[in-house]
Amino acid sequence: MTQPSVTYHSDAVAGKRPSWRHEWGRQPFALRVLLILFAGAITFSLGGILLINWFPSVMSFFGPYFELLVKIPTWTYMATLPLIVWLMYKPRVGRRRTAVIAAWGILVGGASELVGTTTGLPFGEYTYTDWLGPKFMGHVPYFIPLSWFAMSLVSFDLASRVSKRAMGRILGGALIMTLWDVSLDPAMSRAFPFWTYEVDGFFYGMPLSNWIGWLVVSLIIAAGIELIVGGKRISTAIAPWFYAANCFFPFALSLLYGLHTAFFVGLVVTALVLSVVLRFDELGPSE
Predict the structure, then answer these.
(1) Is position 106 within any domain?
(2) What is the Cα–Cα distance from 280 to 263, expressed in whole angstroms?
(3) Is pLDDT above 60 for 4?
(4) Is residue 224 part of a domain?
(5) Residue 189's domain spans which residues?
(6) Which of 153, 232, 280, 282 has the fewest CB atoms nearer than 10 Å to its CB?
């Protein structure tokens, strides 16, 4: 018995990129609500930091609630991230394949984090604090494996716009995923104490092994996604802007907390990724 075919849609047709307003109107109501919550969490966090920077005296009132005021938008951001990605790709990939991709990303990402926090491999020695909530086996916050699934799939989407080759999509997706960490890591370990490194690495305390580990884990997840989707293009028009928002948040935090190198490098690599992706959106992916 033959398997029923799955239709894959691409919103990014060479030479015809849908406008954000057009694409927004096409999204399901639930996805639009989640995107508003996601954007609201980022806005609340950055607005609160600006308020404290401009008017330090407000800490006399907000000081006792500071940790809670950080956790609420951060947890909202982390909770909406995988839900948004699920709703973005389910109509294009299908419920079953999206579930398999989610399971694969969560399994590989979660396992790598558990090994990393207990042995130091492959990222280097680090520890998650309690600011990201309850932890799996006392080591890895439950939000973290979900974010591996979500951003790996978005990164794979962006890479599929640049290359028609499987290896190009896998390598590109892993690289785009790793570049997200350029400003994410300093923002989440120095601006806020979401995790800490046991060594004094070269980039705001982060060792080079962290980026190597990110690349290796991202390659494994991207290879699985390639296998699951069967080489089909799964683009959605809002993916570049969603990736941009996820990069903007940490490099804006880096700027507000004086981590200027992390801000500048994060801004440059994000602009480079998006410029290449959007350019190939117009021309079509290369061979």
Answers:
(1) yes
(2) 26
(3) no
(4) yes
(5) 82-283
(6) 282
